[in-house]
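Field log, afternoon session.

UNIT: design team B
ACTIVITY: writing a sequence onto a fixed backbone
BACKBONE:
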C-alpha cells in the first residue's frame, strides 16, 4: 500500500508523466488535479466517518452517495481473509470493537486514497487530452497569419496597356525566362470598359464594373455636371468605396500587412480604412522614367524585408503612354517594351538579392491592350443630323470610344432615335438594353444612354479634340484589348502555358496565395488552380474549422478512452 501523497505508478497512465509536458500545460493539469483531488478526498473521509459512527452500512451508502460492497466483503477481497472487519481487527491485535472500527476506518482512508488517486489520474488523462486538443485549436487558428508572414508573400505588378502580343515583335529575354520558370497565359480578357481605373479595380476586387461601381476613370456628378480627371479622381473616396473591398483591406482585416505603389485605388479609404503603406504618384508624373521605376522596385523590396509586408500592388504607367502617343505598332512602343523587359529583369534580380525568391509569388499583368485609332470616317456626335446638345443634361464624351449621355426630361426617346443608326461604327443602347455580357450597365452611376465605338473608332463630342494614335476602351472581346499574365514563384508550376481567362478571376488567385478568405466576387478559383503546384496553396482560413473539429473530437476520444 502506498503512503498517502505518494505518486501512483506511472505505468497506470497512458499519457506522458507530468514532468515531460510543456510548462504551461503541466501547470494547468497540476492545478486541475489538485483542485479536483483533495477536496474530494476530505469530503469522502468525513462522510464515511459519520456513517461509521452511526454503524449503519445502508446509511453509509446513502451518505457517501455511491454504491459500495459491504465492508467485510471489501476487506476479505483486499486481504484474502473471509473474516469480518471486527475479526480481522482482533487478529491483528486483540482490540476492542471500537478500536477495531477505528483501525478499519484508517485502512478505508488509505483505500479511498487509492480510489481517489485512480479517479484523479483518469481526470488528468481526460483533461490532458482536452488540453492537447485545445493546444491544437490554438495552433491551427494561428496558421494563416503565421505562415503568410513567414512564407507566402505576393507582389502584383501591372504594366498599363501591355497588349497580349507586345512581346512577339520585340526580344524580351526576361519575360521569356519568367514564362519558362513559371506560368504564362495565352492572353487575359479584361473587364469592360477597358480603361485603367475600372480594370485595375476588377483585379483588386474580383468584380465586374457594374458590381464594384468604378465605372470610369473620371468622377462625375450628373446633377452639377462636374467632372474630375483621372489623377484627381484617385483621391475621391466615395468614387472607390462602393461596398466592394479591394484585397488590401480584406487582407489587413485578416492580419496581413499590405502596400500600394502608384496602384489605381491605392490613395482612397474604404469604410474608413486605407492600405498600410503607400506611395501615390504625383501630378504631372513622368510614367516612362526608368530610374523611378527601379527606385519603386527597391522600395517594394524594402517593404517586404524590413516592414514585413505580405502583399504589394505595384503599378507602372507604360507601355500605355507610348501606345497612346505613338501608336501600338510604333518603334517607340517597341522600345518601351524593351524597357519593360529590362525592368522585369531588375525586379527578379532584386527579389533574389533580397532573399525572397523562395517566399515571394510574383504576378505580372495589365489592365487592357491597345488599338490603332482610325482617322477616317470618324464618329462625331456634334455633327449628327437632328442631334443637339440642348437636349442633353449631362454628357461624358471625348474619352476614347465610350460615351455616357443623360438626356433632359422627355428627350430620351428622341435622342435615342437620332443617334441609334447615325454611324455604322457607333453602338447606342438604352441602359436596360445594354448587352449583359459586358457586366457594365446595371449600376446607378450608369446614365440612361450608353455609347461605344467599334475597334479603332473613338467618339468625338462637341468638337474633335482627341488626337491619340492609340486607344483602348473598346469591346473586351476584341483581340487587341486582350492583355498579358505571367506568374512565377514557389506556388506556381514551371513552363506552363494556360488557356485564356478573364481578369475577374485574378482576385481569387491572390486570396488563395495569401491564405485569406475572399470577399464575395465574380471570379472562380477553379479556373486558376491548374497553374498552381498541387502542394503550393495552403488551405484558406475558411477551411480551418473542419481541421479543428477533427482535433477536438480526437481530444475527447483520447480522454474518454
Amino acid at each position: 500500500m502506498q503512503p498517502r501523497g505518494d505518486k501512483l505508478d506511472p505505468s497506470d497512465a497512458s499519457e506522458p508523466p507530468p514532468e515531460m509536458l510543456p510548462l504551461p500545460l503541466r501547470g494547468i493539469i497540476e492545478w486541475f488535479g489538485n483542485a479536483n483531488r483533495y477536496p474530494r478526498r476530505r469530503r469522502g473521509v468525513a462522510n464515511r466517518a459519520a456513517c461509521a459512527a452511526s454503524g449503519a452500512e445502508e446509511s453509509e451508502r446513502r451518505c457517501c452517495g455511491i454504491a459500495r460492497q459491504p465492508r467485510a466483503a471489501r476487506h476479505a477481497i483486499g486481504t484474502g481473509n473471509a473474516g469480518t472487519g471486527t475479526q480481522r481487527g482482533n487478529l491483528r491485535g486483540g482490540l476492542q470493537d471500537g478500536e477495531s472500527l477505528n483501525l478499519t476506518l484508517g485502512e478505508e482512508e488509505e483505500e479511498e486514497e487509492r480510489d481517489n488517486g485512480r479517479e484523479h489520474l483518469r481526470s488528468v488523462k481526460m483533461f490532458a487530452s482536452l488540453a492537447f486538443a485545445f493546444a491544437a485549436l490554438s495552433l491551427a487558428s494561428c496558421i494563416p497569419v503565421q505562415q503568410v508572414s513567414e512564407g507566402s508573400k505576393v507582389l502584383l505588378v501591372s504594366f498599363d496597356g501591355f497588349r497580349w502580343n507586345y512581346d512577339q515583335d520585340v526580344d524580351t529575354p526576361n519575360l521569356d525566362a519568367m514564362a519558362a520558370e513559371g506560368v504564362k497565359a495565352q492572353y487575359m480578357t479584361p473587364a469592360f470598359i477597358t480603361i485603367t481605373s475600372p480594370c485595375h479595380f476588377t483585379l483588386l476586387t474580383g468584380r465586374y464594373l457594374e458590381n464594384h461601381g468604378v465605372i470610369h476613370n473620371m468622377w462625375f456628378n450628373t446633377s452639377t455636371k462636374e467632372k474630375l480627371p483621372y489623377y484627381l479622381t484617385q483621391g475621391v473616396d466615395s468614387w472607390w468605396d462602393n461596398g466592394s473591398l479591394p484585397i488590401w483591406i480584406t487582407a489587413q482585416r485578416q492580419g496581413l500587412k499590405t502596400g500600394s505603389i502608384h496602384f489605381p485605388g491605392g490613395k482612397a479609404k474604404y469604410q474608413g480604412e486605407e492600405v498600410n503603406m503607400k506611395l501615390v504618384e504625383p501630378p504631372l508624373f513622368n510614367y516612362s522614367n526608368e530610374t523611378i521605376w527601379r527606385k519603386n522596385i527597391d522600395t517594394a523590396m524594402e517593404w517586404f524585408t524590413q516592414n514585413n509586408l505580405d502583399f504589394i500592388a505595384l503599378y507602372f504607367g507604360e507601355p500605355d503612354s507610348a501606345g497612346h502617343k505613338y501608336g501600338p505598332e510604333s518603334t517607340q512602343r517597341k522600345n518601351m517594351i524593351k524597357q519593360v523587359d529590362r525592368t522585369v529583369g531588375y525586379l527578379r534580380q532584386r527579389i533574389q538579392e533580397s532573399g525572397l525568391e523562395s517566399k515571394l509569388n510574383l504576378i505580372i499583368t495589365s489592365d487592357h491592350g491597345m488599338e490603332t485609332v482610325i482617322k477616317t470616317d470618324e464618329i462625331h456626335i456634334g455633327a449628327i443630323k437632328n442631334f443637339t446638345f440642348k437636349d442633353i443634361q449631362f454628357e461624358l464624351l471625348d474619352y476614347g470610344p465610350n460615351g455616357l449621355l443623360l438626356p433632359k426630361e422627355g428627350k430620351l426617346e428622341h435622342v435615342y432615335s437620332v443617334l441609334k443608326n447615325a454611324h455604322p461604327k457607333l453602338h447606342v443602347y438604352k441602359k436596360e438594353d445594354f448587352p449583359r455580357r459586358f457586366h457594365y450597365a446595371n449600376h446607378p452611376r450608369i446614365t440612361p444612354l450608353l455609347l461605344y465605338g467599334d475597334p479603332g473608332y473613338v467618339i468625338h463630342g462637341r468638337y474633335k479634340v482627341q488626337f491619340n494614335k492609340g486607344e483602348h476602351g473598346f469591346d473586351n472581346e476584341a483581340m487587341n484589348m486582350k492583355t498579358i499574365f505571367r506568374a512565377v514563384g514557389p506556388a506556381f508550376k514551371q513552363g506552363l502555358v494556360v488557356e485564356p481567362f478573364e481578369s475577374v478571376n485574378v482576385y481569387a488567385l491572390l486570396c488563395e496565395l495569401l491564405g485569406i478568405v475572399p470577399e464575395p466576387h465574380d471570379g472562380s478559383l477553379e479556373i486558376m488552380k491548374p497553374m498552381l503546384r498541387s502542394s503550393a496553396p495552403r488551405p484558406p482560413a475558411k477551411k480551418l474549422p473542419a481541421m479543428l473539429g477533427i482535433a477536438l473530437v480526437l481530444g475527447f476520444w483520447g480522454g474518454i478512452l
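LOG NOTE: The first helix runs from residue 23 to 54.
NEXT ACTIVITY: expression trials, pending approval
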